[in-house]
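pasting for ref
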Amino acid sequence: MTNEQASTDLARLLGDPVFTSLLDEAMRDYLDWEQLIQRPLPAGISAAEMWNLLTMLRRLGATHFPIQAVDGTRYWYRLTQEAIRCLQTVEHHCRGDSALHQAVLEREGQRYLVRSRIQEAIAACQLDGIEITYEAAGRLLHGGHAAQTAAERFVINTYELLGDVEELATETLSPDLAWRIYERVVERVELSELGRVPLRHNLTDIYDPDACLGPDEQARVLQQLCDYANGLTGDPDEPVPLRGYAFQSAFGYWQPLPDFNGTVARLMLRLFAVQHDYPVLGYLPVSRMIQEWADGKVEPPVVRFQKIEAPRIIDGWADYSADALTFLQLMVAAIEKLRDYIEDTRRRDEELQRVLDAEEELNYRQRSVLSRALTHPDAEFRIRHHRTTHRVVYATARADLLDLVDKGYLHQEMRGKAFVFVPQPGLRERIGGDS
């Protein structure tokens, strides 16, 4: 075919309203294969040819991930209009100067931070194949119990690190830092006793252990991942939330550490978010949202895709625009849950305060205890957990709970060598009925 003929064919194709309609939709929105094969196509062009052509055009101006996959595949994504709107929402609410972050820093948001840390610790461990349920781990972390199993010790380590990782904010993300986080995650964990199930490394599929790298390749890829997170490679204008997601997802895919890459990646993502002034992104329950989506618990219209198929590889390139869009939609959903939680907590606190003000003066920490006790009559409270949650000294935490015992709200019991505080029977009636 001559250049003149090629130019004529291209001009004809660009003038075809069927083609331009498909191209416009593919550029503005993500047009997947199942949608394409149901649409009218330009004369003389098969669905496969149309797919390849649209993909190549969409790749122009897309964001390219700088690290090749094990088989040499390169990845890219393009932001659709829907993804851009989601990204604007994430950026608006996740920055350090956002109203949402300021609300979380207030006392109504402190309970959310603890709850989110618990959810993330459990979800991150489950993504690494650790066999522990939310119910068991929740009782462990809420109650401040000592670890009895290797899985419980692992969850506690992860939970504590999620709270401490900000202390590392001045450090550059590096292989050495990744290894130190790994060592803290497995500290005092009997690895041979950990029950394991298949690992999920990203939104698309389950990790294939046969694709693991050798030690030399692991070290090389770990350095590449850190260089990417630090902005030394990749598109310098790539949005921070998407760079963070790509880093975490790639960490799980390449498995640059001997084990527990999902957990380490989640901890490094929190550090990455803090360093780039996106604190809300750091404490949103990212892993929990991904897990719920993978389990089919997050459906349209919250997310567009209920499942993401492995992308078609064209000329050595694979499009993960659907992954990027789904991640952003999950973040928007998590933000809405956080906003609802804070508003509901504020409302319940105000209602509870109106009742308590009529009886006795209590501080906000004690109101927090009573609020949970009213919602969960079987709740247990321990001095250690109360101290950690509200960041007070031991004597203050002990005084808070003993004062609630003296006032008749809680009952004190002895469990082993530790005191446990439980709601008194009929607590709601004691405080004020259904108010």
